[in-house]
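User: Here's a structure from my thesis project, written as structure tokens. My advisor, Dr. K., wants to see whether a designed sequence matches the one we expressed. Can you design one independently, without my sequence as a hint?
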């Protein structure tokens, strides 16, 4: 049996934030954010930060999600861990598989090393753009003490 050499989707796949999964779950169950905050015991500001992908799901939050939604706390913690470790796992994969396809945005950023000017059309995958920016920041060693300004100049097609 002949095996064809397939390109992996790993390099182009990205883990979404678990807040998006939680948001979808609340919508499906038709539960308002305020009601869920009250029922779960998760403070409303924290819940809103999780749903807007500005806060992580902690062990305590995962236990509250499990008791309220019936979805195992391990699921939430694993999902958060996968989201948090994605940039490092992607970088390790790309280092081990230099032939793997990369987004055009990431290619331009990697070539410029300092500045990237990218024209984005309406068909561009925005997750790819965000992943590329994360890779750029991590590649430059920018830490929490440094400022980074990202400007999107959107012009109609």
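Assistant: Designed independently from the structure alone:
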């Amino acid at each position: 049996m002949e095996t064809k050499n397939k390109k992996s989707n790993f390099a182009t796949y990205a883990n979404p934030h678990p807040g998006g999964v939680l948001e979808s779950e609340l919508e499906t169950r038709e539960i308002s954010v305020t009601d869920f905050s009250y029922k779960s015991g998760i403070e409303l500001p924290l819940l809103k930060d999780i749903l807007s992908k500005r806060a992580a799901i902690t062990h305590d939050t995962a236990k509250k999600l499990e008791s309220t939604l019936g979805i195992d706390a391990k699921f939430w913690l694993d999902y958060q861990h996968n989201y948090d470790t994605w940039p490092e796992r992607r970088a390790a994969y790309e280092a081990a598989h230099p032939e793997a396809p990369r987004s055009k945005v990431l290619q331009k950023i990697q070539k410029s090393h300092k500045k990237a000017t990218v024209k984005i059309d309406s068909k561009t995958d925005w997750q790819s753009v965000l992943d590329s920016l994360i890779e750029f920041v991590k590649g430059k060693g920018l830490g929490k003490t440094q400022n980074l300004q990202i400007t999107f100049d959107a012009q109609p097609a």
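When you compare it with your expressed construct, this may help: The longest helix spans residues 73-96.
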